[in-house]
Amino acid sequence: MRNFSLGKLFGIRLELHSTFILLIAAITGFLAIFDFPSLVPTLVLLFFLFVSVFIHELFHSIVAISKGIKVEKITLLPIGGISLTEEIPEKPLDEFLIAVAGPMFNFIVVVLIALLLSFFPQLPWPWHIFTDPAAGAEELNQALLDFPLFSLFWVNLVLGAFNLFVPALPLDGGRVLRSILSWRLGFSKATRIAAGVSTVLSLFLFLIGFFSGNIILLIIAIFIYLGAGQENEFAALKETLKGVDLTAVLNKKPLILKQETTLEEAFQLLQKKNQTAFLVETGNGIGFVSVDVLEGIKRSRWPVVNVAEAAAELPKISLTDSPIKIVTKSLSRNYPFTLVYSSGKLVGVIDEEQLRKFLKITKLNKESQH
């Protein structure tokens, strides 16, 4: 199931993750059948969660942009969000400020609601939750449905506290931990330590979720475990790229199909060359046609559709960009090629497959020297 596009804001693509959509659909369907009176209050709670996660991620992105880091996409999940950036901040202070920006929004909402209640104590609020020692989970859950202001307060309190105070990557708390360690230990070692802490915490959360039957905790544990692994791989990649010249994999004279080439002709060439993608001319520059692109078009139309009409866009990088920025932009989006420019002119293309081979050889070479 694909993510749902919400458009763009400040040039950042916004997406609602498929799990968020499935969660809303599942809860709506269940409550409509078995507990209809709770349907509207629950949807209000989910709306507060959606808005809070969205603005939480937006705060991250605004600070990142202020630090010169381009944010390409924000994906909203039920347990938080993911901001896809071109690179991880080089300076520990920058990563620290970006990491705390999201939770700060949540805590600002909590403080504002508390101030509002201090001036207007007559507002609908479940005071018994805070004054009755016997109040438990059942009373809390009911209060979240009965008092919208309290549900907004609780969503932001939990979202902010969970993200900031759980020191696990890829959560904000894990990034704060890494940024603090990076001041003394450097990025790679700090990431290894933070990833190790994250793995231990994920296993701990998984065991608690498993024995308590808490599905949400199980999902969070898996999310942290996988995210920590990815962060560790990125740190290793960054270490591999130190002192590496990527011009070795720059194809300065790539094969580019003319824009009038039909899809049928492109397919025949794909078969002949045993490739899965080709660069093609478009009206706006250079794009690509791949097997995946062809699969989305009926075979009967291949002889009458040219490659320029079907071409997909490619990422662009500058020859002066750092190796880690070039590699992350080339590999993280699963594009077959990346266009390399210098002074506004195309100087070559990096092939994703060739880049992966080059990185494997470079890593092996560096490891053999230690």
Automatic annotation (TrEMBL):
The chain crosses the membrane at residues 12-33, 39-59, 96-120, 149-172, 193-226. Signal peptide: none annotated. This is Zinc metalloprotease. Residues 249-291 form the CBS domain. Binds 1 zinc ion per subunit. PANTHER family: MEMBRANE-ASSOCIATED ZINC METALLOPROTEASE M50B (PTHR39188), STAGE IV SPORULATION PROTEIN FB (PTHR39188:SF3). Belongs to the peptidase M50B family. It is a multi-pass membrane protein. The active site is at 57. Its cofactor is Zn(2+). Pfam families: CBS (PF00571), Peptidase_M50 (PF02163). One of its GO terms (cellular component) is plasma membrane. GO terms for molecular function: metal ion binding; metallopeptidase activity. Zn(2+) binds at residues 56, 60, 172. It is found in: Cell membrane. Residues 46-207 form the Peptidase M50 domain. One of its GO terms (biological process) is proteolysis.
